[in-house]
Amino acid sequence: MDLLTFDHSFVKVNGITMHVAEKSPCVSGNGAFDGVIYRHPVILFLHGFPELWYTWRHQMVALSSLGYRTIAPDLRGYGDTDAPESVDAYTSLHVVGDLIGLIDAVVGAGEKVFVVGHDWGAIIAWHLSLLRPDRVRALVNMSVVFDPWNPMRKPISMFRSFYGDDYYICRFQECGEIEAEFAKAGTERSLLEFLTYRSPGPILLPKGKSYDDPISLPSWLTDCDVKYYVSKYEKNGFTGPVNYYRNMDRTWELMGSLSKAQVKVPVKFVIGDQDLTYHIPGTKKYIHDGRFKSHVPLLDEVVVIEGVGHFLHEERPDEISKHIHDYFGSF
């Protein structure tokens, strides 16, 4: 896909400079954020790990052709957005602050946007909707369910109890350790370990793991796609993205005041039946037994797509674009 079909800008938000890609239904000669395009409904796309704004390229093209202004930032620590040095600068509260600043800057102060999230982007989208529902018109979230604050479920100890110390989230906790392993394996091989993962089982990265086994690209991931990801991760490394995981417990501590709080924006949730997140212990039951709906009372629809893994928006781009359009079109 030609990257020149997207507009790229840099915006000062919340103490950092954020890179933003945009695809709009009409093009102005004065830049990506010229006032002529503000009339169109805005969709804010939030990526996950180990991705970038680029993961939404198919949806941005499809939805912009249907009249939406589509915006996808590199989240803090990713791609061409600033990566603060402090490990503590990557809580959900920091990232939600970035996004409020972004919406204010490129859409307008007090304006609402449609939001689409996947993986870490889904977690951030839940927290954005929880903390600032006044800025979200509706949400299409993928892969990661809303996890209500629970005093008995500190995230890292929970995952360790499920999967042990080799689980990738647990392996990410020690600063510098996983970065050294990825440096030894090489950027491309490290990225492909995740981007090509298509098992419903957990990702395990035991110490001393060999990264020598060959990996074949799935049909939806091209050499050009991989080269783009590699170019950005070779520039800035994995520390910023991995710091999100290192702040899971800290975010949990900071969100304690939101115990029993509900997400009160309209939501459609989409997940693949082969997604590892769908197979986290207790998740299927939580989605289907009514508890998910009790915590997200405006949950309008849950879609489980058969035969699809974690990167469903890349594996089935047209189908996901249709799900987004059908839902947001109802508003």
TrEMBL record:
<protein>
    <submittedName>
        <fullName>Bifunctional epoxide hydrolase 2</fullName>
    </submittedName>
</protein>
<comment type="similarity">
    <text>Belongs to the AB hydrolase superfamily. Epoxide hydrolase family.</text>
</comment>
<dbReference type="InterPro" id="IPR029058">
    <property type="entry name" value="AB_hydrolase_fold"/>
</dbReference>
<keyword id="KW-0378">Hydrolase</keyword>
<dbReference type="InterPro" id="IPR000073">
    <property type="entry name" value="AB_hydrolase_1"/>
</dbReference>
<dbReference type="InterPro" id="IPR000639">
    <property type="entry name" value="Epox_hydrolase-like"/>
</dbReference>
<feature type="domain" description="AB hydrolase-1">
    <location>
        <begin position="41"/>
        <end position="317"/>
    </location>
</feature>
<dbReference type="Pfam" id="PF00561">
    <property type="entry name" value="Abhydrolase_1"/>
</dbReference>
<dbReference type="GO" id="GO:0016787">
    <property type="term" value="F:hydrolase activity"/>
</dbReference>
